[in-house]
Amino acid sequence: MKRLSRYRRHRAAGPVLLLFALFSVGTTFSMASASNRESVTPLARSAAIDEGREIFLKGCSSCHGLNAQGSVVAPSLIGVGAASVDFQVGTGRMPMADMSVQASRKPPVYNAEQVAALASYVSSLAPGPAIPTDSLLNYERDGSTAAGGELFRTNCAMCHNFAGQGGALSQGKYAPTLMGVEPKHIYEAMVTGPQSMPVFSDKTITPAEKLSIIKWIKAAEAEPALGGASLGRVGPVTEGLLIWTLGLGLLIGVAVWLATKAR
């Protein structure tokens, strides 16, 4: 102990201990970094990402660029996240032939596996909103129809109509109908803001409130038309137009009939 105590008081003991500590920390950090690289690399170069890149190069790169950097006709996809790709491609809006018009919902070109692979590739380029999981989309359990209706009328009805039937916007654009849309795609649209739609972040509309909106939309979708023909549920304009058309047509028909009988 006396010998050890003597060495500890030596003037070189401090620098030696400092070098030993730095060497230990550096070795530990290098081992941890190597371990992380080994765990991330197989994921980044997984089969799904490679398949998604092949799909992207064949069907998307002509507009979005070979590296998804965007072009004069299409925006960059770096940082849009998997949710944006799943919404645009899963609803058939992308790929599209004419980028000058608004993308409309149609049968998807790619199957579910190809959409997932394409989303994996784009999400590997930069962080972005992820595809919502089934556990997150349990709107029947976690949503409120009454609260969802109030949120929808406050944030969505001015574009999508008070009944979710869609409506016209400026410059030839339109808000599509929400009837028949999958809950996953409704959620993705809220977090990504496709085309003219704003992004509703979790600070603006919380995940629980998003589920309430979805629950209200699904309730409106299943609501029966107890009053007869719904006429698209677009409000009094179509109802008034129908009444005027039928009413005036009936009056003209009666007038023609009376004139014919008078002869």
TrEMBL record:
<dbReference type="Pfam" id="PF00034">
    <property type="entry name" value="Cytochrom_C"/>
</dbReference>
<feature type="domain" description="Cytochrome c">
    <location>
        <begin position="47"/>
        <end position="126"/>
    </location>
</feature>
<dbReference type="Pfam" id="PF13442">
    <property type="entry name" value="Cytochrome_CBB3"/>
</dbReference>
<dbReference type="GO" id="GO:0005886">
    <property type="term" value="C:plasma membrane"/>
</dbReference>
<dbReference type="InterPro" id="IPR050597">
    <property type="entry name" value="Cytochrome_c_Oxidase_Subunit"/>
</dbReference>
<keyword id="KW-0472">Membrane</keyword>
<dbReference type="InterPro" id="IPR036909">
    <property type="entry name" value="Cyt_c-like_dom_sf"/>
</dbReference>
<protein>
    <recommendedName>
        <fullName>Cytochrome bc1 complex cytochrome c subunit</fullName>
        <ecNumber>7.1.1.8</ecNumber>
    </recommendedName>
</protein>
<keyword id="KW-1278">Translocase</keyword>
<keyword id="KW-1003">Cell membrane</keyword>
<dbReference type="GO" id="GO:0020037">
    <property type="term" value="F:heme binding"/>
</dbReference>
<keyword id="KW-1133">Transmembrane helix</keyword>
<feature type="transmembrane region" description="Helical">
    <location>
        <begin position="241"/>
        <end position="260"/>
    </location>
</feature>
<keyword id="KW-0813">Transport</keyword>
<keyword id="KW-0812">Transmembrane</keyword>
<feature type="domain" description="Cytochrome c">
    <location>
        <begin position="143"/>
        <end position="221"/>
    </location>
</feature>
<dbReference type="InterPro" id="IPR009152">
    <property type="entry name" value="bc1_cytC-su"/>
</dbReference>
<keyword id="KW-0349">Heme</keyword>
<dbReference type="GO" id="GO:0005506">
    <property type="term" value="F:iron ion binding"/>
</dbReference>
<keyword id="KW-0408">Iron</keyword>
<keyword id="KW-0677">Repeat</keyword>
<dbReference type="InterPro" id="IPR009056">
    <property type="entry name" value="Cyt_c-like_dom"/>
</dbReference>
<keyword id="KW-0479">Metal-binding</keyword>
<dbReference type="GO" id="GO:0008121">
    <property type="term" value="F:quinol-cytochrome-c reductase activity"/>
</dbReference>
